[in-house]
Amino acid sequence: MMFSRSFRGLLLISSGLAMSGCHAGAPPIHQAKQAPREVVNNQRVFLLVPIQNPRKQVREDVETSLREFYFAEVRWLDNVDIPKSAFYQPRRRYRSEKLLRWLQAEFAQGSATTKIMGVTEKDISTTAHGVYDYGIMGQATVGGTSCVVSSYRTKRRIGSVAVHEAGHTLGLEHCPNRGCVMRDGEGTGADIVNHSGFCSKCRSAAGIWLR
Ligand SMILES: [Zn+2]
Ligand SMILES: [Zn+2]
Questions:
Q1: What ligand is nearest to the CA atom of residue 182?
Q2: Domain count across the chain
Q3: What protein residues have CB closer than 5 angstroms to ion ligand 2?
Q4: Residue at 66 is within a domain
């Protein structure tokens, strides 16, 4: 069934000119706060925002996977409550496009090389494939700053979803190459969680961010 927990979806929204094909979502909010002193240089940083106390195993999987694939600093911020404004009462889950706007407004540093990733175990959803409230594993702004990942639909491979969504923030779109972590989830997410890393095309496009 479309809304069962086994129906896994993963998609992205695109920002500005970088349309990605699967979903054109909310425009990015450029409301950057003043950058802390430590990130004003051109360091590549993933700032991870634990939303509503994700378990240690989830946090470790995300952190380990990002460190494995990206040549970037990975740093956790303090846990935050999930914003009530993102709650979608009819299905009792959280709208990911609202979470992205909130992450951007609250945590963006005004640095193109600092990416924000919300990490949660809560169920997240967005409008896609003609369905108003479609459950997903993650969402990102292509070439933007923010993304969000949820372990709700993928208990053990949230790290792969994190690598995929982080790739979107670096400007990577979905990739047709089998085995590439940037392949479209296409409803099941199987290609993302069973990946063998980045293909050579995505690798060269992501440049110095990748190990
Ligand atoms: Zn994607
Ligand atoms: Zn690829």
A1: 2
A2: 1
A3: 175, 177, 180, 182, 199, 202
A4: yes
pLDDT digits (tens, 9 = 90+) for 90-103: 999 999 999 999 99
Give a yes or no: residue 20 inside a domain. no
Ligand nearest to the CA of 22: 1
In a domain, 32, yes or no: no
The CATH number for 78's domain is 3.40.390.10
Question: Looking at per-residue confidence, does 153 or 24 come out higher?
Answer: 153
Domain containing residue 66: 43-206
Residue partners of 43: CB distance under 8 A and separation at least 6:
72, 73, 113, 114
Cα(205) to centroid(ligand 2), Å: 9
Give me the percent of the chain exceeding a pLDDT of 70: 80
Q: Tokens representing 39?
A: 């990130």
